[in-house]
Amino acid sequence: MRHYLDFEKPVADLEGKIEELRHLSEADGINIADEVARLTEKADRQLRATYAKLTPWQKTQVARHPDRPKARDCIATLIAEYTPLAGDRAFAEDSAVLGGIGRFRGRAVMVLGTEKGSDTETRIAHNFGMARPEGYRKARRLIELAGRFGLPVLTFVDTSGAFPGIEAEARGQAEAIARSIEACLSAPVPVVAAIIGEGGSGGAIALAAGDAVLMMEHAVYSVISPEGCASILWRDAAQAPVAAEALRITADDLKRLKLIDAIVPEPLGGAQRDPAAALAGLADAIGAALAPLLGHDGPGLIARRREKFLAMGRDSLI
């Protein structure tokens, strides 16, 4: 069953009528092909019009859609011969961060991803994609392992942020995130990061400080969630739509500000409507971003990456 967002109600009504007509046709043998075609065309026009003018807050809702492809879907579809690697070799395994070795289009790679889960059971199992320190220490371990064996690193980011619990703070959450960012920046191999849903705070940057940062068309990427920002500035989470507008969290905004490198188009209506097509487009974008990086040696990659991020501080962003 398809999940509809609040602003998709006109589309939901039309597609509901189409389904009703199809059921009637099957039950009574009535030929309603012309009426179904008319309503289908109308629904497509409505969907196109709706998605052509999404607000930042509506894009946030799309980025959080439960049916969007998750990190495990990206790995299952894009990575062949995937072998998961677990644990940080210091405390525990963290299911919010997936990682392992596999092949992307025949090339051996290290892959990492933050996994939110798609239903109640998997969300709880993966802690809603909110990693604890051991998750970021695992990420650092695997990135360093990739550097030793000359494996490009691919990351798929979808998290509202790092886990904020007191036990995470007691185990050094901030230090673990900082070390993961450091590992990305100092890796002597290509690092290609993709924001596939929600890129929240340092929990996202920890896996996204790459040579190339890609962003799905309806993904969002920000230092804080709109609700968190609204709670701090207005002490009212209901102001989240206003905060989303001010934060400049959409792919278009971030590309214009030169904080990401490329936008990956999504099928009409978002990746959740056609995950296979969305992942095919993502694979092509990763391939295009990775190819030119393979010609650089380790010191060259590190110097290039350093210059890229330092330039963000030198250039005016507003």
Low-confidence stretches: none
Number of domains: 2
In helices, the fraction of residues equals 40-55%
Order of helices and strands: HHHHEEEHHEHHEHEEHHHEHH
CATH top level of the largest domain is Alpha Beta
Mean pLDDT: 93
* Largest pleated sheet: 8 strands, mixed
What CATH architecture label of the largest domain applies? Answer: Alpha-Beta Complex
DSSP summary, beta strand count: 8
Rg is: 21 Å
CATH topology of the largest domain: 2-enoyl-CoA Hydratase, Chain A, domain 1
Please, could you describe this protein's structure?
Strand 5, helix 9 (201-205) and strand 6 (212-216) form a beta-alpha-beta unit. This protein folds into two domains: 6-53; 60-314, 2-enoyl-CoA Hydratase, Chain A, domain 1 (Alpha-Beta Complex). It has 318 residues and is an alpha/beta fold. Strands 1, 2, 3, 4, 5, 6, 7 and 8 form an eight-stranded mixed sheet that branches. It contains 14 helices and eight strands. The model has no long low-confidence stretch (mean pLDDT 93). Helix 1 runs antiparallel to helix 2 (33-51) and helix 3 crosses helix 11 (240-247). The longest helix has 20 residues, at 9-28.
